[in-house]
């Protein structure tokens, strides 16, 4: 064996890898027939491979998968929420609806430009709507992002969003100067609530066929 | 099967853990076996193979879906095993099951060396000897031998798992075989 060329061992491994060229295989076969040492070497290699292959295959413990799943980082909320939604289609529809509702209502809120219900009798001064003395404004007034001063009369309700009702000189009489409700809204939530009430009322009016 | 794995991985990427459970079911035995033969101890093998699956889950975004999933998974597992072997202090658990045996611990192995030489070597003992000889291999030879002869993977896949040129894989297999030959020829 010691006198045998290294290349013979190389060929043995090529053979064991299943990648031996036919001419190498011939050289190897011929050599193994004549050299007992190399033959033994080759048999020992084959034997050790067979022994390694013979060790029985092991299986993972029975609770393996469960343990892996238990130790995973928490499932993304997205998925569990999604799964919940697919199990509760009606609630899904309802919640999507309310999300859109809230979003569209809040979008009205978010602007901070001064605005006021159009009415020819109203006077606008520095973000303040004024009901002039002696005048009677007919219809509801909504003031957004500004104040309203009522010196005259309003035949309807007054709503002030993000502002306040500034009373004129005739403070004492002011309550009587508005025939409808006086509402001040200064929080987003209140605004939302107001809108919802408003929508609810108009829906009810629509349903009952009542004209506003 | 590739299609099955792909569809599950897409689910996993959306965060679906149940889909990942199916993947674990599919590969758990092979990964556990790889770790067991690399580490020779079922406690550690379970530890490391659990860790391999958890890492695969966490890094699933980094897996290239056009490549073979098992290659990527084996790579994670092999690297974890090699890390463990390198860090390993001689911490033998006397109560741990001995490699390749059922219910045999190191306690029972201590008097085993006093067995009469003419006593017939049982199948379990033979497996134990073989496993111990595999464990004696340096980890770089051990990995290729386990992947080649226990996991029965082709050379090309082994080279991808270990991220080594195929020539290096062959050289290591040849050396591993020669080492095993010397260790096992008298059995």
From TrEMBL, chain B:
<keyword id="KW-0731">Sigma factor</keyword>
<dbReference type="GO" id="GO:0003677">
    <property type="term" value="F:DNA binding"/>
</dbReference>
<dbReference type="InterPro" id="IPR013324">
    <property type="entry name" value="RNA_pol_sigma_r3/r4-like"/>
</dbReference>
<dbReference type="InterPro" id="IPR013249">
    <property type="entry name" value="RNA_pol_sigma70_r4_t2"/>
</dbReference>
<feature type="domain" description="RNA polymerase sigma factor 70 region 4 type 2">
    <location>
        <begin position="128"/>
        <end position="180"/>
    </location>
</feature>
<dbReference type="GO" id="GO:0006352">
    <property type="term" value="P:DNA-templated transcription initiation"/>
</dbReference>
<dbReference type="InterPro" id="IPR036388">
    <property type="entry name" value="WH-like_DNA-bd_sf"/>
</dbReference>
<keyword id="KW-0804">Transcription</keyword>
<dbReference type="InterPro" id="IPR014284">
    <property type="entry name" value="RNA_pol_sigma-70_dom"/>
</dbReference>
<keyword id="KW-0805">Transcription regulation</keyword>
<dbReference type="InterPro" id="IPR014294">
    <property type="entry name" value="RNA_pol_sigma-W_bacilli"/>
</dbReference>
<dbReference type="GO" id="GO:0016987">
    <property type="term" value="F:sigma factor activity"/>
</dbReference>
<dbReference type="Pfam" id="PF08281">
    <property type="entry name" value="Sigma70_r4_2"/>
</dbReference>
<feature type="domain" description="RNA polymerase sigma-70 region 2">
    <location>
        <begin position="24"/>
        <end position="89"/>
    </location>
</feature>
<dbReference type="InterPro" id="IPR039425">
    <property type="entry name" value="RNA_pol_sigma-70-like"/>
</dbReference>
<dbReference type="InterPro" id="IPR013325">
    <property type="entry name" value="RNA_pol_sigma_r2"/>
</dbReference>
<dbReference type="Pfam" id="PF04542">
    <property type="entry name" value="Sigma70_r2"/>
</dbReference>
<protein>
    <recommendedName>
        <fullName>RNA polymerase sigma factor SigW</fullName>
    </recommendedName>
</protein>
<dbReference type="InterPro" id="IPR007627">
    <property type="entry name" value="RNA_pol_sigma70_r2"/>
</dbReference>
<comment type="similarity">
    <text>Belongs to the sigma-70 factor family. ECF subfamily.</text>
</comment>
